[in-house]
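okkk here we go again. third time trying to get the S-adenosylmethionine bound version out, last two times i messed up the smiles copy paste (missing a bracket lol). double checked this time i swear
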Amino acid sequence: MHKIIHGDCREVLTTLDIPKIDCVVTDPPYGVAFKSTYGKDPESREKFQQEIEDDMDVETALASFDVSMKAMLPHLADTCELYVFTQWQVAPEWQKYLASLAEFDIHLRQCIIWEKGYPGIGDVTYNWGCGHEFIYYLKKGKRKVPYRRSAILHVDKVRPGTNVHPTQKPTELLKILIEYSTDPGQMVFDPYAGSGSTVVAAREVGRSGVGIEKNASYHAAAEHRLSEGSLLDGW
Ligand SMILES: C[S@@+](CC[C@H](N)C(=O)[O-])C[C@H]1O[C@@H](n2cnc3c(N)ncnc32)[C@H](O)[C@@H]1O
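finally!!
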């Protein structure tokens, strides 16, 4: 099963009928009012410079995420590993929230550093560009540890101009997370699917994948990505 559902994950999750989720890989709105500066012409500026829903501040982002997290709980398998992307400016708030999920037996275990190869342009009035993001790792249950590895991952970010979403994550990075935390055929889920990168990555490594995306144009882009190569795996 590989699909991206169009809708608000907070609502869709309440009626979602899928097998239990073995791994969540998600890149929700962080709450940093992100707006891409990319775009060579009016058409690409319109495509890439859209604001992301619920991203205006960390309180809004976390309030939204909390609703989707609570709606996800009944869908999680007894052993499930979760990866949640964020960045340093809002990491304290996200870390505090994610640690509170221990109440549901979901334990925050690591902060992975994704080193993205090169920084974005960002604010050029100071010296250091941001060439990394954080990926919080949480674990429910006692899935066997395959082997221990460093929590610093070096994978180049998606090159501007080749992306279909302003905060698109590289499938090579997502595949590392998915392969490390699931067995072939297991279910990977992303409630904030954007252009569908998690589901595309899941399919590439032989896992099932379901995502939800609220924005109609990103949902269409995700469906298009999934339709490419769908004949290869019989989807
Ligand atoms: C940071 S982006 C994810 C990008 C994705 N990782 C990719 O590679 O394309 C977050 C996405 O969540 C979507 N979103 C925000 N609120 C949502 C909600 N309540 N339900 C579903 N999607 C939502 C936004 O439209 C946005 O595309």
